[in-house]
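Researcher: Here's my situation. A collaborator sent me these components and asked whether they could plausibly form a single complex. I don't have experimental data yet, so a predicted model of the whole assembly would be a useful starting point for our discussion.
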Amino acid sequence: MSRQAILLCLLLAAFALAPLAAGPYLLSVLVVVMYFAYVGQAWNIMMGFAGQLSLGHTLYVGLGAYTAGALFVHLGVPAALGLFAAVAAAVLVGGAVGALGFRFGVKGVYFALLTIAFAEFTRILFEHIPGLGGPGGLFLPVGDRTGIDLIHLRGHPLMFYYLILAMTVGIFLLCRKLVRSRLGYTWLAVREDQEAAAALGINVFRAKLYAVMLSAGLTALGGVFFAFYYNNLFPNQAFGMNRSIEIILAPIVGGLGTLFGPILGALILTPLGEGITMATEALGFKAAGIKQLCYGLSLLAIVKFLPDGVWPWIRTRLGLEPEEDGEGDR
Amino acid sequence: MSGHSSPTVNRRGFLAAGAAGAAVLGFGAPLRAAQPLKVGLLLPLSGGLAREGQSCKRGAEVTPGLLADMGMPVQLMIADTETNIDTARTRAEKLIADGAQVLIGAFDSAHTLAVAQVCEQRGVPLVVNIAAAPNITEQGFKTLFRNFPTAPKLVTEGLALMKDVFKVTGTTPTKAVFLHNNDTFGTAMAGAVNKLFPTLDMPFPLVETISYDGNARDLAVEVGKAKATGADLVLLVPHGDDCIRAIREMVKQRFEPKAVVSPGSPGMYETQFYKTLGKYSDYCMTNLPWINPKSAMSQALLKAFSKSHPDALFEMNIGFTFEAILIAADAAKRAGSNDPKAILAALPTTNIAEHVMIGGPIAFDAKGQNTNTRSATIQNFGGKPLVVLPSDVAEAKPVFPAPGWQQRG
């Protein structure tokens, strides 16, 4: 077993056993950590692996959340079925956004602007759909909070904890498989030099489209979790630009294009925020916004001193070879 | 309302009022332990809703002193939701872990519902100070109690009060134009206005609805369109500084409706509005729940508030936040215990006749909603919002039609 595999197993064991020692507060923080690790990993497929910058990824969170949520509210479709519709909707929209952008050669920051435009357009659209609650919100019946009903995603917070843990492990394994696959190497080629990849006979359009669609579908799954965990959806929350930024922070801080990066980034950022809050409270700083100030400074420090992300730095320090986890030079 | 005349009730008077209220309400329940009630207050102190959250916080800060005088010691534990649903949920868990026996908050409806689920799971009461989504009390929560009207009630009362203004002043506008911010709040309000308007038998037609981008640098086109309708009443639903831009544009274009009225939105009673527009801020009307200027308790709150925050506006957020803490403390006092279960048992029988907001006694229906809240018409005079309706609590008479922009001192 490689050192990275041991590290992963230890991390997984710690998360799996955390409910034995952690109280509800810590568990709620860990849910947020894993949620951002999950959606960060999904975004990483598109940006980290295939090099396509999306700054409107909340579009897929919102689509997944609203699709599964609305099916549950209006037709009683259980989440276990609704998620297929949610993923399908996001894959279709992702495909449309990707096809539109790539067909007309929209690249780099311009593609990022396109993704923002679609997210904003969808937010406004959803504000004008009365059947989805419009700006007044779509509310899922909260129901039983003690049992475990994975079909309808109703139940105890611990159920949601293990669900998001399973989702995070699942997406990690999927991405690990992907980066070692033919498609993964194709993405690597496209990310590093699109023209050279095309010259080698790679269908660049198709490779990028696959990345967008896969990333969108997986992100939508995160949206389904979001909808059933919080039980309320508002267009400005589900499709808000700030949520897009939150999604991309973990992989950027952890290490773009790496498998451990999004997990490590989420493990750093959420506890960092909580830690700063606790520290400022303990020190008696009561000014609102002090946390955001410290948080911003911490991010600046990370970006300044570890521009490739925290995981590549740790990996070097621990003497782990990138090839061991199939990440190539990522 | 800061700086209103005749704040004649001091803390002693407030205590007397509280004692009288206690007698009426049967506060003769066994005295609870001297330990203060630990109240966890969740507010958006930073982020997009920081202005409103900070206003609530200012109200909360003066509350423990007043409640202590009433024999209801409380210890506030204030947490910032950062206008973020994830943070709202984790902060709620943290407050409970730190010993909060009641939670209050969380201003934003989405955050409130996230917090409500935590409270329900943990058996801790949640008293909602401000959040208007009707569904909050439709989820079947056993631990949630809301002392704030729902959005449809806000709009219905906001529109109905206009009829009262016209009746009292003896002047009725011939037609109205509706201008609203196209953000989430403005769109929701517009939906409610357009839905409810035909059902309320309003004495004037709504000739056009015009939405605008709240971030637009000027509203020349929208105001020009509104002027072109020939309407003599402007219904305005702003959400921030856009109300300043709208009024400025009306002055610039010499569009002089008989009044600018908001059926329940922020903006036209905020400090920045008065400071920026000066005399042009006068006579604007807003219909919304407001602090009762005739209540002894609100006078005491005003006095305490003015002392600690001399430059801050004494407005709705402060009153509702105070009342939420009052409700929790009252329940604990009647229960004779700070135990969340005991407080939960006492909350449904809440009946607080003497409080600070306009409306009937604070009491909850089977869903945990206080149905006795009542909106008022406030009108700006000399850079201050004064209650002009309902007449029984009015501080001034409504002025309608408003003087032209250039006819003001």
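Model: Some features of this prediction you could bring to your collaborator: The first helix of chain A runs from residue 3 to 21. Chain A has one domain: 3-318.
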